[in-house]
Amino acid sequence: MLTVSLHKVRLHASVGLYPQEIKTGNELEFDVSVSIPAEIGSLPLINYEWLYSVLQSSVATPVSLLENIVQHIIMAVQTTYPDAAITVSVRKLHPPMGGHIEAACVSYTTQGNTKTIL
């Protein structure tokens, strides 16, 4: 398996259930990993610059839930890499819930095609 990951990517986004969150936006942090079957002698390309653009497009329009963002990312990656195992985590930093909360997080993992190619 070849895995390409981006960690602690920070983007500002209009996401939330409250009108003020949509207006002012929130700071989000992303981790995403994409794994595909691969032979060590001829590793395929998983373009992490493209992966970053997927994260950017996932926050291009306002949404109410972090789950909407995760869904967008998973669907985009599956379109380009249909056999991929994908893990996505999206954290809303310092959510407006009262008290001190570092982050609220939504994560999702797909299994993909897990056959090993030697």
What oligomerization state is this entry in?
Answer: single chain
Instruction: Tell me, briefly, the overall form.
Output: elongated
What's the end-to-end separation, in Å?
A: 9 Å
Order of helices and strands: EHEHHEE
Gyration radius from CA atoms, angstroms: 16 Å
CATH class: Alpha Beta
State the total count of DSSP E strands: 4
3D structure, described in words:
With 118 residues, the protein is of the alpha+beta class. The chain has a 4-stranded antiparallel sheet with strand order 1-2-3-4. The longest helix is centred in the middle third of the chain and has 15 residues, at 66-80. The protein starts with a strand and ends in a 9-residue tail after the last strand. The chain contains 3 helices and 4 strands. Helix content is 27%, strand content 33%. It is elongated and about 50 Å long. The chain has a single domain (2-109), classed as GTP Cyclohydrolase I, domain 2 (2-Layer Sandwich). The protein has helices at 19-24, 48-58, 66-80, and strands at residues 2-13, 26-36, 85-93, 103-109.
